[in-house]
């Protein structure tokens, strides 16, 4: 009976596949059926235009219950590789997928100039396909796909074994992630420093590549583990992995008191064998490129995805730390929209061509936004900078990896993960560093970045009435007052905010007028503010808003008479991050930020929106006095950050900082507010069930369609 059911399912798949073929009769070339599969049936179709074959299109029929392989593009890529592994034909550039109930069209593997597989509205016509530029940028892409699948299986198995079985000196699942990151860090030395040596505790020198080897570990056991630990202790302060931030501070990936925890030789053997035993690197046409591949040979896009997927699948969200885990569809859509506009901005392209382009995420988590930005900028360089030869393009990419990426976070573990993530993608010098607070750190300078993508912390914490909770509340409020000091006017300059806040009286003392420096500019505590004293008395000054390119103001808000006054610790940190990010952007720079919806619509936050856009002149209809142009607002589903422990309704806000006059570099030009692109994403390709992202629900990723509509100018 079970056999009969299996036959019935295969027959249903065949019928569904044949139906897809009939729907695409204009592709008149013989169908090339792909490898048989348990729950999928696929084939390649092509058409003929003016005597030329179009690029292939995949038709894919899925059995009931397996829609996740279409809804989740990462899972689709894995399935596609399996189906395509035995074909000698050109790989498809689009796929049409159906399970009988749901259907979807995908653009595959970044072949349309985007970053990876994503949904599209319609399948291009034969004529459009005929002129479709299917440049396969990576000649070993198919091999990289196979290695991606291999690594994901092995990483998951390793994590499960350590967590469930060996418990090898780790306390939780996050500890295991950290240990994997340390070994990936060491693997980068084996790849990029093949001749490097280290000294063990007895003073003996060893060739690292000979010791950090799964076969050596298998043979020598505990001896090998001890030597690897010695190597880690020496390499963790290697100069190539220490970055210098904008304030001149030097930051290593690991602190001096960080060591390898794992001690069971078999754990080392298993993970190193997964990383190192990759077999020969094979060209897409089947020829061998090199006899033994390494992670350095794997496509950067896929290697970044390995790290991101492994982290998201296994990271335990505690105490709100899930804020770092921005869903991949959100990251992809935000960067796709921003990079599209950069590609059409002559000034931005000029800065990119000169190597002056800079990206930042001031609350970076594992730097997922940076990883996506890296791959998309690489592709932009390859496709849009036609005036550069191949050597110049590679030199530009290297400069951007060393100088173009900045991130900061208040969680040391996430900073470490972010640094290793970028090191794996050839960017160990990415300026990612720990900071107590990105709102106040001097390592992030005003007017520094072309693009900021971030999902900052938002909402004020709730505290119980017990003694410990109230003590925490006082600490939080004191910390917030220190932060707010940078947003408020003061009469003297100091290195510490403590001089401006009376912690005994627990109040801010605004002492009146602002002194001027030798250039006639007001002096500020740490940062300039956008507030100017315009009246009142010495004891009761009144302040008005005067937007400037490097100012801050949203630590204050206007009263009913328009006088700006300080606010307290109850302010939503998201408001401060809007202000801070606009300060950090270069004039004309772009900000993609995830915000709680209240800031966008609550009447009490109107002053925030006016600070951004300016006030509307009723006669001219123009917005006057704002710092930025609102390009788009995209509403996200309420369960977008459910895995992070919040059901808060959020949206993506896309801003462009106004440009300035060359003659008055601190004054914004009166650029008109353009039409705002607005859209609502109801689903992201998955539903959250039982604390997992379920891609088997058959829901679409609305952000695919929204990003496509934005790029078309709709």
Describe the structure using short key phrases:
about 725 residues, alpha+beta, 8-stranded mixed beta sheet, 6-stranded mixed beta sheet, about 35% helix, about 20% strand
Fold and architecture overview:
With 714 residues, the protein is α+β, with helices and mostly antiparallel strands. The protein is 37% helix and 19% strand. The protein has an 8-stranded mixed sheet with strand order 17-16-15-18-25-29-28-32. The protein has a 6-stranded mixed sheet with strand order 1-2-5-6-7-8. The longest helix is centred in the N-terminal third of the chain and has 26 residues.
Concise description?
The protein has 21 helices and 34 strands.
Model regions low in confidence, pLDDT < 50 over at least 5 residues: 133-137, 319-324, 491-516, 522-526
Query: What is the count of β-strands?
Result: 34
Rg of Cα set: 28 Å
The geometry reads as globular
Mean pLDDT: 83
What's the helix and strand layout?
Blueprint: H1 2-23, E1 32-33, E2 40-45, E3 48-49, E4 52-53, E5 57-62, H2 68-71, H3 73-84, E6 94-98, E7 103-107, E8 118-119, H4 126-130, H5 141-166, H6 173-192, E9 197-199, E10 205-207, H7 208-211, H8 214-220, H9 222-235, E11 242-244, E12 250-252, H10 265-276, E13 281-282, E14 288-290, H11 300-314, H12 328-343, H13 346-353, E15 359-361, H14 368-384, H15 390-403, E16 405-409, H16 412-424, E17 431-434, E18 449-454, H17 467-484, E19 501-502, E20 507-508, E21 531-536, E22 541-545, E23 556-558, E24 564-566, H18 573-584, E25 585-596, H19 597-601, H20 606-613, E26 614-616, E27 623-625, E28 628-635, E29 650-657, E30 660-661, E31 664-668, E32 677-680, E33 687-689, E34 692-694, H21 702-711
Parallel strand pairs: 5-6, 15-16, 15-18, 16-17, 18-25, 28-32
Antiparallel strand pairs: 1-2, 2-5, 3-4, 6-7, 7-8, 9-10, 11-12, 13-14, 19-20, 21-22, 23-24, 25-29, 26-27, 28-29, 30-31, 33-34
Helix pairs in contact: 3-5, 5-10, 5-11, 6-16, 8-9, 8-10, 11-14, 12-14, 12-21, 14-15
């Amino acid at each position: 009976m079970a056999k009969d059911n299996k036959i019935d399912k295969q027959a249903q798949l065949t019928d569904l596949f044949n139906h897809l073929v009939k729907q695409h009769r204009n592709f008149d070339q013989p169908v090339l059926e792909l490898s048989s599969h348990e729950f999928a049936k696929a084939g390649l179709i092509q058409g003929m235009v003016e005597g030329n074959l179009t690029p292939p299109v995949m038709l894919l029929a899925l059995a009931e219950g397996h829609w996740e392989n279409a809804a989740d593009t990462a899972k689709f890529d894995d399935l596609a590789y399996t189906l395509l592994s035995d074909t000698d034909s050109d790989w498809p550039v689009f796929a049409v997928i159906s399970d009988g109930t749901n259907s979807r069209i995908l653009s595959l593997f970044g072949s349309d100039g985007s970053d990876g597989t994503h949904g599209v509205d319609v399948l291009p016509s034969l004529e459009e396909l005929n002129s479709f530029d299917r440049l396969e940028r990576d000649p070993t892409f198919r091999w990289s796909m196979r290695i991606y699948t291999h690594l994901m299986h092995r990483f998951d198995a390793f994590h499960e074994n350590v967590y469930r079985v060996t418990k090898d000196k780790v306390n939780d699942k996050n500890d295991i992630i950290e240990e994997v990151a340390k070994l990936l860090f060491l693997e980068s030395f084996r790849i990029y420093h093949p001749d490097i040596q280290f000294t063990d505790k007895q003073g003996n020198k060893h060739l690292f590549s000979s010791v950090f080897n799964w076969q050596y570990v298998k043979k020598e056991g505990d001896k090998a583990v001890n030597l690897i630990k010695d190597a880690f202790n020496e390499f963790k302060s290697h100069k190539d992995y220490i970055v210098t931030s904008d304030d001149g501070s030097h930051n290593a990936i690991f602190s001096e008191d960080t060591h390898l925890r794992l001690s069971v030789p078999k754990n080392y053997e298993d993970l190193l064998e997964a990383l190192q035993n990759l077999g020969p690197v094979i060209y897409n046409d089947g020829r061998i490129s090199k006899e033994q591949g390494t992670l350095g040979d794997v496509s950067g896009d896929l290697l970044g995805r390995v790290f991101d997927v492994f982290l998201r699948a296994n990271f335990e969200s505690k105490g709100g730390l899930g804020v770092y885990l921005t869903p991949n569809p959100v990251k992809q859509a935000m960067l796709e929209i921003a990079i599209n506009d950069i590609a059409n901005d002559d000034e931005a392209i000029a800065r990119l061509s000169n190597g002056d382009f800079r990206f930042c995420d001031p609350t970076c988590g594992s730097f997922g936004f940076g990883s996506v930005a890296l791959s998309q900028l690489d592709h932009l360089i390859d496709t849009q900078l036609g005036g550069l030869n191949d050597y110049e393009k590679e030199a530009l990419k290297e400069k951007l990896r060393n100088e173009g990426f900045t991130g900061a976070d208040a969680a040391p573990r996430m900073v470490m993960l972010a640094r290793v993530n970028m090191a794996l993608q050839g960017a160990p010098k990415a300026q990612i560093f720990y900071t107590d607070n990105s709102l106040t750190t001097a390592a992030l300078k005003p007017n520094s970045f072309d693009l900021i993508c971030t999902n900052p912390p938002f909402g004020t914490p709730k505290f119980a009435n017990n003694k410990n909770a109230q003590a925490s509340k006082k600490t939080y409020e004191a910390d917030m007052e220190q932060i707010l000091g940078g947003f408020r006017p003061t009469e003297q300059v100091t290195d510490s905010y403590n001089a401006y806040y009376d912690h005994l009286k627990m109040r801010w003392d605004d002492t009146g007028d602002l002194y001027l420096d030798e250039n006639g500019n007001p002096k500020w505590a740490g940062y300039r503010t956008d507030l100017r004293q315009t009246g009142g008395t010495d004891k009761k000054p009144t302040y008005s808003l005067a937007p400037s390119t490097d100012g801050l103001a949203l630590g204050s808000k206007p009263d009913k008479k328009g006088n700006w006054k300080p606010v307290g610790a109850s302010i939503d940190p998201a408001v401060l991050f809007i202000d801070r990010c606009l300060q950090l952007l270069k004039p004309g720079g772009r900000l993609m930020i995830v915000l709680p919806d209240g800031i966008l619509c609550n009447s009490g936050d109107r002053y925030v929106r006016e600070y951004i856009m300016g006030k509307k002149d009723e006669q001219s209809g123009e917005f006057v006095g704002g710092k930025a142009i609102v390009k788009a607002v995209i509403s996200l589903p309420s369960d977008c950050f459910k895995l992070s422990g919040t059901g808060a309704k959020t949206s993506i806000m896309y801003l462009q900082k106004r440009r300035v006059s060359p003659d008055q570099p601190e004054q914004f030009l009166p650029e008109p507010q353009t039409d705002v692109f607005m859209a609502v994403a109801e689903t992201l390709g998955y539903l959250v069930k039982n604390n997992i992202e379920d891609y088997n629900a058959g829901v679409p990723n609305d952000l695919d369609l929204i990003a496509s509509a934005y790029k078309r100018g709709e």
